[in-house]
Design goal:
Distance between the termini: 56 Å
CATH topology of the largest domain: Immunoglobulin-like
CATH architecture of the largest domain: Sandwich
Largest sheet: 5 strands, antiparallel
CATH class of the largest domain: Mainly Beta
Structural class: alpha+beta
Helix content: 25-40%
Strand content: 25-35%
Radius of gyration: 33 Å
Length: 316
C-alpha cells in the first residue's frame, strides 16, 4: 500500500510539468492613460474565462497591458471591464487578429484608451491559427503563407540575382516590405499593422465605434485623446518595444482563473497525497509496535503459567 501511494505521488509530481498548455495565440493589448493617479482594475472575460490584474496609473502617463493565450478561432465576444473604487465600465466586442477598438469618448478619470487584438509571434491569419517562422530570406504574408524577401526566390528562398526575375513594380510605403510568394513571379507589399493597399498607402479605419457601459458610478465622459490612428500605432509600437526590452516588467502577462484553479487543485492533491503517505507509514509503525508488545505479553504469561505448573507438581 505504501509503495502504491509513493508511486502515485511521484507520478503526480512528474506529470505536473506537462499539465498546463496555452489556449491560443491571440493577444489583447490595452493602452490607457488617466488624467489623475488612480488604482485601476482590469477584467478581460473570454470564453467564460477571466484574466484579471490591477495597475497604479500615473497622471498623464500611458500604460500598456498585455493579455495572452486567447483562442480566436470561434470568434467569441470579448468583454473588458475597467474599474476603480468609484466607477466601473465595460465594453464588448468581437475579437479577431489586427483589430483596433476605437472609442470617441471615455469615462472619467480616463483620458486616453485604445485596444488592439493581434497574433503572437510566428502566428498569422484572421484567427491566429497559421504558424509561420521568419528566417533568413524567408518571410510570411498576412495569412501565414511562406514568401521570399525582395530579390530572392525558390522553394526555400535560396535563389537570388538573375535566377529571380521580377515582374511588376513594388514601392511599399509606411514601413511595408516587398515580398514574393513561393510560387509567384510578382512581388507585392506586406503591410505593417494599421495599413493596407497595393503599396500600404491606406490607413485602416473602422467606422464602428465602441462605447462603454456604466456598471456603477458616474457617467461623465471626455473626448478620447488617442483619436489619431497614426499616433495610436506609434504609441503601441513604442510601449510594446519598451515592454520587450524590459523583460515584460511594464507589460506583464496575466493568466486565466482556469490555470489558477488547476494549480490550486494540484497543490491540494499533492498535500492530500503527502498526508496519506505520512498517516499510512505512521499507522503501520504503530501496528508493528502493538503486535510486538502483544507478543511480549503472551510470552510472559506463558512463562508464568509454566512456573505455576512446576510448583504444583513439586507440591504433589
Amino acid at each position: 500500500m505504501r509503495f502504491l501511494l509513493l508511486f502515485s505521488f511521484s507520478f503526480l509530481l512528474s506529470s505536473a510539468t506537462f499539465s498546463f498548455s496555452t489556449h491560443g495565440a491571440g493577444i489583447l493589448e490595452i493602452l490607457i492613460e488617466s488624467g489623475s493617479p488612480v488604482h485601476t482594475g482590469f477584467v478581460v472575460t473570454f470564453e467564460n474565462k477571466s484574466h484579471v490584474t490591477w495597475r497604479q496609473l500615473k497622471a498623464d502617463t500611458p500604460e500598456l497591458l498585455i493579455f495572452e493565450d486567447f483562442d480566436l478561432l470561434n470568434g467569441h465576444l470579448m468583454n473588458v471591464t475597467i474599474h476603480d473604487t468609484i466607477t466601473s465600465n465595460s465594453v464588448v466586442f468581437p475579437a479577431s487578429n489586427k483589430k483596433v477598438v476605437d472609442f470617441d469618448h471615455l469615462p472619467l478619470p480616463y483620458t486616453g484608451l485604445q485596444m488592439k487584438t493581434k497574433c503572437a509571434e510566428n502566428w498569422y491569419g484572421y484567427s491566429c491559427h497559421k504558424h509561420c517562422v521568419v528566417k533568413n530570406e524567408l518571410r510570411c504574408d498576412k495569412y501565414g503563407n511562406p514568401a521570399c524577401a525582395h530579390g530572392y526566390c525558390g522553394s526555400n528562398c535560396h535563389k537570388s540575382g538573375s535566377d529571380c526575375p521580377v515582374f511588376g513594380n513594388c514601392s511599399c510605403k509606411n514601413g511595408g516590405e516587398c515580398i514574393r510568394g513561393i510560387s509567384e513571379s510578382r512581388t507585392r507589399c506586406h503591410c505593417p499593422t494599421g495599413y493596407w493597399g497595393k503599396n500600404c498607402e491606406e490607413l485602416e479605419m473602422y467606422r464602428q465605434k465602441r462605447n462603454f457601459t456604466t456598471n456603477f458610478g458616474g457617467n461623465l465622459t471626455v473626448p478620447n485623446k488617442f483619436w489619431n490612428r497614426t499616433d495610436i500605432y506609434q504609441l503601441f509600437e513604442k510601449y510594446g518595444e519598451k515592454s520587450r526590452t524590459s523583460g515584460h516588467q511594464d507589460a506583464q502577462t496575466y493568466q486565466s482563473f482556469g490555470k489558477l484553479a488547476e494549480i490550486c487543485v494540484l497543490i491540494w492533491l499533492v498535500a492530500t497525497m503527502g498526508y496519506c503517505i505520512i498517516k499510512c507509514c505512521g499507522e503501520s509503525k504503530n501496528e508493528k509496535k502493538i503486535v510486538e508488545t502483544s507478543g511480549d505479553k503472551k510470552k510472559k504469561k506463558s512463562e508464568e503459567e509454566k512456573k505455576c505448573i512446576l510448583i504444583e507438581m513439586n507440591d504433589m
